[in-house]
Design a protein that fits this description.
With 447 residues, the protein is an alpha+beta fold. The protein has helices at residues 4-7, 27-55, 69-76, 78-108, 115-123, 130-140, 149-161, 311-336, 340-348, 353-364, 366-381, 385-390, 402-412, 416-446, and strands at residues 178-181, 184-187, 197-201, 226-232, 257-262, 265-271, 277-280, 288-291. The protein contains 14 helices and eight strands. The strands form two sheets. A five-stranded antiparallel beta sheet has the order 1-2-8-5-6, with no helix packed on it. Strand 1 and strand 2 (184-187) form a beta hairpin.
């Protein structure tokens, strides 16, 4: 009979032990706890991916095998090609600009007293959903400067250097002495000194007249000079008055520019007074009076932010507004971990702040910058909400991206085979980026 000492001899087999995980928990127990999560993962992630892959090889009805026809459509369908081109623009510019802004914000706010408050304000858009942000920027980019903030600012800057006309709709009425010329108007006959000139126009609403406009006055004959009146003549159905002559209820065209033209050359010019009257010197005798096109230039209403040419950059701008705060917070955390001795040593060696930033700060932040850029890149490939909400129907084709085209093919156009192919294509685009991120993280852990 073996003794206990013999059982523990070096050559005796060790008694079986229950296998445990690194945390000390039995693996069967750990597997039971993980089972619900694994079931959900399989049902919500693995199964949809597998089904999409299989469905991408079938036709619209799902009964006939289509082979790679759905994948061929990715490179032949005009809408998908536009979406692919826009996705390239998104991947190149949106993560780059958002990461660069986050870096600038993190570095500049590091030393200021109100840096925390600034970071809070910049990060705040992250608390807003894509839907809400899309609605906000749909209003921001409104064409009407009275509604859209972007055009209100743009028009304000433009009008500081180039004033818009107050009479964009003005034009001669019936039996007018004026005729059209080069976007403006010119008198049909030459003018003479001592004979007042009447220049009636119509087409400007009373509430659109300049605030300085006064009641029109009939010009008096001038000795050795040209006199006249330019005013808003009454329109049919607006009361009793004399056509072609100033009435008490009519306003003068305050600030209207007039030119005296002889043989195609301007010999004199002036501007109408608040009551519409004007005076030209004697050298204008025998000339034709011209109202140049600048008087009738349409008011500047800013840029068509949501038009075909600017809609994609405009939507990228709204995305950067949301995600620059995310980049800033991660980069600021990485910046806080940089040893201050390295920065001070560089300054002691004579480096200026730009050199410290470029040669010390940025290289040390390279791992963090890579994490931010890759994360935003993955996020950009899935962008859908902003494009769907901000881009109007007239320019949605020009702003199209792959995620939006997937939705349109799958639901609006009832082509589930092509929609599944787009989904698989998006997955293939994301996998290399995710692989790079995981590989880099493992390398960091080994260090």
């Amino acid at each position: 009979m073996a003794t206990p000492a013999a059982a523990g001899a070096p050559g005796a087999p060790a008694p079986p032990r229950s296998r445990k995980s690194v945390t000390g928990t039995r693996r069967t127990v750990a597997a039971l706890f993980l089972l619900p999560a694994l079931v959900l993962l399989g049902a919500l992630v693995v199964y949809p991916i597998g089904y999409s892959v299989v469905r991408s090889f079938y036709d619209q009805s799902g009964d006939g095998f289509a082979g790679v026809d759905n994948y061929k459509a990715l490179f032949t369908d005009e809408g998908i090609r536009t979406a692919l081109k826009n996705n390239v623009i998104w991947v190149v510019f949106a993560p780059t600009v958002a990461t660069a802004l986050g870096l600038v914000f993190a570095v500049l706010t590091e030393r200021v007293r109100w840096g925390t408050a600034f970071k809070l304000v910049v990060f705040m858009p992250m608390a807003i959903s894509m839907l809400a942000a899309g609605i906000i920027f749909r209003l921001v980019y409104d064409q009407d400067p009275d509604k859209g903030v972007a055009n209100a600012v743009w028009v304000g800057v433009h009008d500081t250097f180039a004033e818009s006309s107050a009479f964009p709709k003005a034009h001669p009425g019936r039996d007018s002495p004026l005729r059209p010329q080069d976007g403006g108007f010119i008198t049909k006959a030459p003018v003479r000194t001592g004979v007042p000139v009447a220049l009636p126009l119509v087409g400007v609403a009373p509430d659109q007249m300049p605030g300085s406009a006064e009641k029109a006055v009939r010009a008096r004959p001038g000795q050795g000079e040209i006199t006249g009146t330019a005013w808003q003549d009454f329109t049919r159905g607006k009361g009793v008055g004399t056509l072609g002559a100033p009435d008490p209820s009519e306003l003068g065209y305050a600030g209207m520019r007039l030119e005296a033209v002889k043989d195609g050359k301007v010999v004199a010019s002036t501007k109408a007074a608040d009551d519409g009257t004007f005076t030209l010197p004697a050298k204008a005798d025998g000339a034709q009076l011209r109202l140049p096109a600048s008087n009738f230039k349409e008011a500047y209403n800013g840029l068509d932010w949501l038009g075909p040419s600017l809609v994609t950059p405009a939507i990228i701008g709204s995305y950067i507004w949301m995600w620059a705060g995310f980049a800033m917070v991660l980069i600021a955390a990485g910046l806080a971990g940089i040893p201050r001795e390295l920065l001070e040593a560089a300054r002691v060696d004579g480096a200026n702040e730009w050199q410290v930033f470029r040669r010390v700060t940025v290289p040390l932040l390279a791992p963090v910058l890579a994490v931010v850029a890759v994360t935003l890149m993955i996020n950009v490939l899935k962008v859908f909400d902003l494009v769907f909400i901000i881009a109007p129907g007239s320019s949605q084709d020009d702003a199209n991206v792959l995620a939006l085209e997937l939705y349109r093919k799958g639901f609006s156009e009832d082509q589930p085979g092509i929609a599944s192919a787009i989904a698989v294509f998006l997955l293939l685009l994301v996998i290399p980026v995710m692989w790079f991120n995981v590989r880099r993280l493992r390398r960091e852990v080994r260090r």
